[in-house]
Amino acid sequence: MSWQRWLRTALGLFLVALVLVVALTMRRRAPQPAVDTVKRIDPSAAVELPQGADIVWTEKGREVFTLTFQRALTYPDGRSVFSGADVRIPDRGGRTVSVSATDAEVRNAPGQPRSVVLRGNVVLRSSDGLTLNSRDATYSEQDRILRIPGAFTFTRARTSGSGTGATYDQNAAVFVVRQDARMKIEPDADGSDAMEIAAGSATMDRTQHLVRFEQHATVLAGTQTTEAETLVAYLTGDDERLTRVELRGGSRVRDESAAAGGLRAMEARDINLAYAPDGRTVQRAELRGQSVLELAGSGGAGRRLAAETIDADLGADGRTLQQLTASERVQLDLPQEDDAPARRIRSRSLSGAGDTGGLRNVTFIGSVEYHESRAARGRTAAVDRTARSDRLDATLKPGFGAPEHAIFRGRAAIRDGQTTGEAGVADYAPGRNLMTLETPAGIPGPAPRVADDQVSRRAGCTRRVMCGALFHQGTRRRGTGKTPRTRAAARRCSTTAIRSTSRRRSFSMTRTRRAAPTPALRASGRRTRRSRGTRSSSTTRPATSRRASGCARA
User: What does pTM read for this prediction?
Assistant: First the structure.
């Protein structure tokens, strides 16, 4: 084949190939999907901000809150979700509150107030040191209230606590625990002031500086336990110390470590406690409604005072009574100690005063009823003794103990077994087992009189001496040298002395029987003329005295 023929063939093949290439090149290609250069977080979001920023919400030129976040998504319905959110809320009084969470959803629908929903590891911090932790929380711009629906814990300085469900009202600066409120205060540097509080709910008002515990509050502070349906604690301006505590409904305060004479327990419908400037020492207690106050005794049994209302002022130790008043259905119970009988005193009102050593002088006024009792034991006789009067002035032993001296004033009436006595005034010396009856001018009551089931005599008419339940006249039987019942009297008493003065006649007696003695009654009354002397009912003639031994003058 010649070269010309080969060239023609090659050119033909080239032209065919060229046509094929052009045809293939000109064919329509299927569109290729676009490749995104940015990875979307949520395709349904209208706007995505992958980097953090700060957003400030204002209202009438005032900052409502500031939101700091790491990433944000905005949706067509007006919602915005911020990751790594931290919300800063200006507070009243120069304080601020910040709330952080894993996510914060801001709802800002047209015509609706803004609200924030916080989810995951919610932490609230205030500039005054409060830290609160919860799982979820919400904040509404409309009422400016932060709400915590579930369980939470909080700490502030030495105080920690927990609860379920809470709200913080930014306008009122009030924090409310809805359920299971618990609070614990750790000891201070001196190891004191530790406290635990439990209640169904709690309210902390920082503006009013008070904390209210409701639905049966219980407070444990050292050895002291306080209980009430509602407890309100008023604090100092810095919220660090107590000034006053109000207990309402089934109120009780008890301290088992109280020393003898110290305040051990208080019970009433309502109780108010006022504290010293140190915030820990009770200075005054006010009990209202079925009130009971109990003081510790030296032998275990306490002294118990009951009345409708009781007011008590305490010493620097917060336990020692220094002033005491009570009114309406007053009843004081003093337990039996050693050989001294148990005592119960009733009246309409009571008032008492003392010093740093405790309450010593007590006055009972209105329908006074005094009762001593003790069961017989061995050779010790039983005691059942009652005195009534308009008023009773008593001097107590230290530690609010048994009476050392008691004066019944106004229509005094005494009953000791079968023995009775009456006068305007009855002066009782328990230590000497002696009671003196007299009726001074101006004191209401009958002329002094004593009687048993067989003999009744009045002062100024016939001399008489009482020993136990036995009365006998101080006039000898002519020709016998004995007074009636002298033998019985000799068996009961060692000596009997009858002394007279121009002002009154008094009778006293000393007991020697081993059995518990019944107090001797001494009756005194004015005489129309001076006695020439007296004779003893025993074989010994006592000396005549111008002053009755141990008998208080009117």
Answer: 0.73
